[in-house]
C-alpha cells in the first residue's frame, strides 16, 4: 500500500517542481510556462520509455523537444483514462466508449482532469515495478516508431502523439499478437474519433490498408446520361449533351453519378480517386439504394459518402450531414472498405492522413460510388502506386 502511495506522490512532486521551474524560467525569459497537463504527459512518456525497448523517440517528449498544445494534452489524458476505465483489452473493440466529435473540452472542469490523471497514474504504477527495457514492442511497432521519428524530424507530423499511443498499446496488450498492434491502433482511432483521427499514418500501416487495392471500372449501365466516360472506364466528367441510353433501373438520371461494376459483400477493399480542386461525391451505395431523381444521397437512402461542394464545403452525408474542416479537403482520395468490421474510411493520399470514417453494420452488397459536377477535368480512378497520365495525354482514351 505504501509503495502504491509513494508512486502517486513522487510523480506529483516531480511535476510540481518542474512546474515551478518552468514558471520561473518563463518569467525570466518572458515566455509562456509549460502547462501542467503537458508536464504530466512528459513524466508518463519517461516511464513508458524506461520500460519499452526501441522507444527512444519518446525522449523528444519528456525532454521538452516535442511539445503538445493544451487541447491535445487534455484530449489525450481524457481519452486514455476512458479506455483504461472501460477495463477492456483494445483488441475487443465492440462496446468501447465512443468519443464524441462535439465534446467540448472547455466544459470539463478540473475535477474531471484530476480523475482522469488518477486513472492513468493507477495504471502506470506497475511500470515502475518492471525492469528497464523489459518489454519488446515487436518488429511491426519498431518499424512504425522509426518512421514516426523520421516524419517528425522532417516536419510531416506536428507531434509524436502516435508514438506515445503505440507504445501504450504495447503495454496494454502484452501477451497478444504484437504484429497486429499498428492496425488495431488505427481501427481504434477511427472507431472512437471519426473525423481526422490521424493526421499522419505510418508507412507500414498505410501499406496494410493499400495492400487490398482493387481494380475498379465504371459501370456504363449506371452512369447518368450527362456523363462522358472514357474508353478504359476509369475517367468521367460531365458532357454538354445528354446521351440517348437505355433507362435501366440502376441508372442515375438526376445526380451526375455512376457506380463501379463490381460490388462487395465481404472482405477488405481499397481504391484511389483523383478529384483535383473540383467538387466530388465518393463512397459506396447499397445495392438496394434508389438512383432516380434528386433525392438526397445520404445514410437514410442507402449511401455512405463524402462530398465536396463549391470547392470549400467538405461534408459526410450523414443525417444530418457532418461538416468537416476545410483543412481536410483532399486532391486525391483513398477509400477503404472493411465489410466485416462495418468500416468505411476516407484518406488524403498526398498527406497520408485520415479524413472521415463511417462505422456501420453492412448487410447487403455495396458498390463504389463516383460523382462529379466538372465539365472540363476528369475524375480519375487510379491504381495505387501508379502515376496517372495528364489530361492532355489521356485524350486518346476518349471514344
Automatic annotation (TrEMBL):
Record organism: Umbra pygmaea (Eastern mudminnow)
Signal peptide range in chain numbering: none
Protein name per its UniProtKB record: B30.2/SPRY domain-containing protein
Sequence ranges assigned to domain B30.2/SPRY in this UniProt record: 196-388
Organism superkingdom: Eukaryota
